[in-house]
Amino acid sequence: MPERNVVTWNAMIGGYFKNGDRESALDVFEKMPITRNSVTWIEMIDGFAKCGDTFKARLFFDKVPLELRTVVTWTVMVDGYNANGELEAAREIFDMMPERNYFVWSSMISGYCKRGNVKEARNFFDRIPVRNLVNWNSLISGYAQNGFCEEALRMYKKMQNEGFEPDEVTITSVLSACAQLGELDIGKEIHYFIKKKRMNANQFVLNALLDMYAKCGDLAQARLIFEGMSHRTSACWNSMILGLAIHGKNKEALEFFKRMEESNEMPDAITFLSLLSACAHGGCVDEGLDVFSKMETYGLVASIKHYGCLVDLLGRTGRLKEALDLIQRMPIKPNDVVWGALLGACRIHLDANMVEQVMQEVGKVDDDMDSGDNSHLVLLSNIYAASDRWEKAEKMRTAMGDVTDKKDISAFNTWNNLHHSCKC
What we know:
Blueprint: H1 6-18, H2 22-31, H3 38-50, H4 54-63, H5 71-83, H6 87-96, H7 102-115, H8 118-127, H9 133-145, H10 149-161, H11 168-181, H12 184-196, H13 203-216, H14 219-227, H15 234-246, H16 250-262, H17 269-282, H18 285-297, H19 304-316, H20 320-329, H21 336-349, H22 352-362, H23 365-371, H24 377-386, H25 390-401, H26 406-423
Helix pairs in contact: 1-2, 1-3, 2-3, 3-4, 3-5, 4-5, 5-6, 5-7, 6-7, 7-8, 7-9, 8-9, 9-10, 9-11, 10-11, 11-12, 11-13, 13-14, 13-15, 14-15, 15-16, 15-17, 16-17, 17-18, 17-19, 18-19, 19-20, 19-21, 20-21, 21-22, 21-24, 24-25, 24-26, 25-26
């Protein structure tokens, strides 16, 4: 270029950062022959922060000339810390800000919500002098993502009462809350609102509607939305498969998976978790084993949750030996959920002999007590009591009598009630 101005140099810095080339971005910054403006510094701070290097981002922030340190510069540094989970550092900068814009308030709310501290997020929200829609969306979304769905719906109503009209971001979050609560009626009201306001039903809104109807059990409406979609992501397929699975439509869930494969949409870990759950509840052992084997075909590594579903599937259908063999071959160390699934199956099928084999794997009860792991004692005592092996059951009772934490005392009370009712 015969002439380069500050905008040109800034564009090069931003371009390098977007492509992950920090060294070249830094090189361009240092070679700038003209005076840097506030955007130049913001590009450097934001670029390093998005690369996860908040240390260098802070170094550049501290070097910004006072006359160029705008509210946007402060906001970018706060947001950079929040995006990397460094809330204490973000709050330090936030508290130092001479003035604040709406975005920095939302950044702090989102940061605390991502950590699960919705109480502190609400404190920040209540401190905002003048709120806008972005602030409301940050809080409502945070509540929904952390499972505080009643509060999300409450704030949604309050937002409208204060004169704010929801947008696509609001609707997506509120529909997620409805899906988690099973609030079909409220979900339908929101669907009507979308149609009435002729809101742009983008991919996120359609996915949220589909997920809400599927989880709330209106599978006909969910399928209507699904079939009307011009583009279907893996999230859409997962919502349909999971919805069918949790409402007992196991064969239909497997049929949808076949359609998904034929559509060339790549299934992910959630797809297989939903399918294995469907197979477990439907007792479809062969189909479940086939589904599990396909994970490797798609380059997916089975997690402890996938193994837990498969153990549950084998256990429910009485194939306890196969379930134990699977646990022994697992490349991952089995956790309480996996052992609990097998012990639960032993209880259903009253197989006390298998319990003995499981205990050889888990370890002696005394060892579990020493390590503080007492999660299996109730299941074991129930199995022994149900099979009239009272000496073994009494041993579990004695073990639980030594437990002091509240969770295990509750477990003991459960056992004690069962024990006396069996004796009667």
